[in-house]
Amino acid sequence: QVHLMESGGGSVESGGSLRLDCAYSGSIDSTYGMAWFRQAPGKAREGVAAITSLGFAGYADSVEGRFTISRDNAQKNLALQIDNLNAEDAGTYYCAAKSSGWWWTLRESQYDYWGLGTQVTVSS
What we know:
Blueprint: E1 3-7, E2 10-13, E3 18-25, E4 33-39, E5 46-51, E6 57-59, E7 67-72, E8 77-82, E9 91-98, E10 113-114, E11 118-123
Parallel strand pairs: 2-11
Antiparallel strand pairs: 1-3, 3-8, 4-5, 4-9, 5-6, 7-8, 9-10, 9-11
């Protein structure tokens, strides 16, 4: 049974930093591609960062240079380092996995498994 669980969300001041983690289990392994998505209130879910099985990463333009995605295959953990937070970064963050890890994508429909999300709030 596949399971993904996000952690690390909370309230952070604008300009601050935060690290999110996603622990995964079951059939998800190093061959899977993985990603982080977020959903702000009243908005559609959007992809922000993705990583291939070999560690190649891609980012949405809005977060390039501020977000860093990484994975630890031995620990079965996906991380997202968020720096210089701004109000537009607030929302629920989800990790996701897809069985093909050769390429990265921020398209939601390409992902097979999802966590339940962790909330990020940005205060001014």
